[in-house]
Structures are given as structure tokens and as C-alpha cells.
Design brief:
Jelly Rolls, alpha+beta
Length: 251
């Protein structure tokens, strides 16, 4: 599943989405942006199915995802898989706070990815706070997935998942008028939501007929994210009392 990364050509804006996301979490100072720009100069491109970390093996130095999607996944002995979470631009892969960390899940590239070493954030800096808020959000989304898998019906699971992705991509400035790129296949979505591909397809077709979404050519359009969120009772996670998290909305 693993393959070798290649050097990413330095280009203007390669880290733009990641920086937008981190800045949305906490305002960043010029010194923080300088650290991020320097790290982006060392970015590498990783092919689809590249393995960033393997369950049970030591965790490598953390990487800041600049472009693309990666997934945290468990493969069962009989070949079944469960996608537990997805990394999007601005997320840190392999963030740990203890010595000699061992990976609790495998992380693979879902699309071609561009990532750079996550710069060490000085204590008390905006970047350190952005990292901390990002980790708190990651935990909040994982807890949300427990509720999603345990209590929501199939249609609600799909809507909740798409709203989460929409919210997260909105922070990085990667949504346009309620739409966003969706590189996951329906089979992958099924493996993330504990459903069968047939059931996922049926629910998506129903949502299309109801006028809630369009899914075509690798792009999803949520026609009214706020209404969909109200319908399923979804609340965007709030993890800090000192900073109001931006809410997903149609531009």
C-alpha cells in the first residue's frame, strides 16, 4: 500500500488552504506564518495509497497536510475495513505528546497528498493554540462518530458525515456555494459509516430525489446545509470558550 513520495515543486499558495484552516482556528502572528512558509518549502507529494503510518509501528515525525485527503483506517483479519476519520488540509498527521509513540491506526492517502513537516510551535504562540484546537476538534468529531454509528439511521449518518466534511473544508476555504470536492467512492463512504454500498447508494438517490444534495463527477452540492443540519439535529462542535468556531454556511 505504501509508495515513495516525491519532491513537491515550490508554488505560490501550496499551503494556502492549510493556513486558512489554522488561521480560522486561532489568529496567527507573522512569526507563525513564517514557520509555516518555511515548512511548506520542504513539502513532498505522496501518491494515492501511500502509507503514512502503520498500526502497531512507531509513529514518524508529524506532518502537516497541505493538499489532498488521507484516512485513519483499521483492516480486520477477514479484510473488512473501517475508516475512522479523514485528514483534510490543515490537519496534522501523527501528532503525539509522549515518548516513543506507537500508531493506533494505519493512515493512508486517499488522494494524492502534499504534506510538509509540521513546524514546532513555540509555547504560547498562535500556532501552538491552533494545533491544540485542531486536536480538540479531532476528538470532538470522533465522539460525534460514536453517536453517528450508534444512534443515527442511514440517511442521517450520510447527511451528518457530509455536513462534517463541509464544515471542515469551509474552514480551509475549499467550499463554493455549498459544494465541495468528494474523492470518496460510495464503497469508501459505506466503510466509514457502517453501511453497505447498496444501502449508501439507495440513500443518496433518495436525498437527490428530495432535493437535498447533488453528487456528480466527484463533487457534492448540499443545497441547504443549515436546513439539513436542523433536520438531523446536528450542531457544529465547539471546543474552546475563547474563540467562536466559524459555522459552515453557503457563500
Amino acid at each position: 500500500m505504501s509508495s515513495s513520495p516525491s519532491s513537491a515543486a515550490a508554488s505560490e499558495g501550496i499551503a494556502a488552504a492549510a493556513i486558512r484552516r489554522l488561521t480560522a482556528l486561532t489568529p496567527l502572528a507573522d512569526a507563525d506564518l513564517t514557520l509555516l512558509d518555511a515548512a511548506a518549502d520542504r513539502a513532498l507529494t505522496y501518491p494515492v495509497r501511500h502509507t503514512f503510518q502503520t498500526i502497531g509501528r512507531p509513529v514518524a515525525d508529524p506532518l502537516l497536510l497541505l493538499q489532498g485527503w488521507a484516512a485513519r483506517v483499521r483492516i480486520l483479519p477477514d479484510g473488512r475495513r473501517q475508516f475512522m476519520s479523514f485528514y483534510l488540509p490543515g490537519d496534522v498527521i501523527g501528532s503525539t505528546h509522549h515518548a516513543h509513540p506507537i500508531a493506533s491506526a494505519t493512515v493512508v492517502a486517499i488522494t494524492e497528498c502534499v504534506a510538509c513537516p509540521a513546524p514546532t510551535a513555540p509555547t504560547g504562540s498562535g500556532l501552538a493554540q491552533a494545533y491544540a484546537v485542531g486536536e480538540a476538534l479531532d476528538e470532538a468529531y470522533l465522539l460525534g462518530h460514536v453517536v453517528q454509528l450508534g444512534r443515527l439511521n442511514a440517511q442521517e449518518r450520510i447527511s451528518d458525515f457530509l455536513l462534517e466534511i463541509y464544515e471542515r473544508l469551509s474552514l480551509a476555504g475549499l467550499t463554493v456555494g455549498g459544494s465541495f470536492e468528494m474523492p470518496l467512492t460510495q464503497e469508501m463512504l459505506a466503510d466509514a459509516l457502517g453501511l453497505t454500498p447498496v444501502h449508501v447508494n439507495r440513500m443518496i438517490q433518495q436525498a437527490r430525489r428530495d432535493g437535498d444534495l447533488m453528487w456528480k463527477s466527484g463533487r457534492v452540492l448540499l443545497r441547504d446545509p443549515e436546513r439539513t443540519a436542523r433536520t438531523i439535529g446536528r450542531l457544529s462542535p465547539q471546543v474552546t470558550g475563547t474563540q467562536t468556531m466559524p459555522q459552515a454556511r453557503v457563500d
